[in-house]
Amino acid sequence: MRLSVDHTTHYVFSGPVSRGMQRLRLMPKTSAGQRVLEWNMHFEGAQLQVEYDDANCNHVTLISFDPGVTEVTIRCEGVVDTSDECGVMGRHSGFMPLWQFVEQTDLTRAGARTRGLLAALPDEPNTLATLHGLSSLIRGRVEYAAGHTDSDTTAEGVLLAGRGVCQDHAHVFIGAARALGIPARYVSGYLMMDDRIDQDAGHAWAEAFVEGLGWVGFDISNGISPDARYVRVATGRDYRDAAPVTGIRYGARDESMHVKLAVQQQRVEQ
């Protein structure tokens, strides 16, 4: 499947920004199940400073704001060929050792609610079946609903609220899998929706490492493993490692942000 992505983030600040920088993880890489044919990034009100690959092999772009700017626009557009690998990404790679993905983070750390969740997990014949069962259990316990959590909400907080979005589903799954001794990581990217082109935001899911298969994806929010409609962009121990945009600024107290995102299938000429 050939997917085109057009993703624009527009910031308006309450006053001039004297200094500001942003770290962007918005460029996908060719990997199992996807081949990046074209990807371009455009900036208004900011300048490219440096590009590098981080410890998780994510491509990172560092930009600085123009002095005194009151608006900044980041636009990414590209084309990616994808295939359905049944969620199987294969062997581990990158600079982070596999054991790092068994260690909990502040956002995934398992507590009493996670242990209660695992107590309800039925016995399964193998690790893969256990993980699918865990995904289903979380989907039943945590209703998909926006506006009840934010980027700092922990897995335990999500289970307490009983509501959340794709990021929250991923954190609960990762924390629970790690509590079982299974390496797990967070994935940010894009999903082509079947019923529309324009979307409110990007997507997030999780991957767990299964002996004999390698990394396997689980989209808890949709109850499936990622297929050809998905574009992987960044991975990490949790959202903070794979966040599309992080940054710092001085001079403006408040900001508003507007996101415009379109993901659609392109026709491939034979």
Automatic annotation (TrEMBL):
InterPro entries named among the record's database cross-references: Bac_transglu_N (IPR013589), Papain-like_cys_pep_sf (IPR038765), Transglutaminase-like (IPR002931)
KW Protease (keyword) present: yes
Biological processes per GO annotation: proteolysis
Superkingdom of this protein's organism: Bacteria
Keywords on record: Hydrolase, Protease
Gene3D superfamilies in the record: 3.10.620.30
Domain Transglutaminase-like, residue spans: 158-222
GO molecular function, one term: peptidase activity
Protein name (database record): Transglutaminase-like putative cysteine protease
Organism: Novosphingobium taihuense
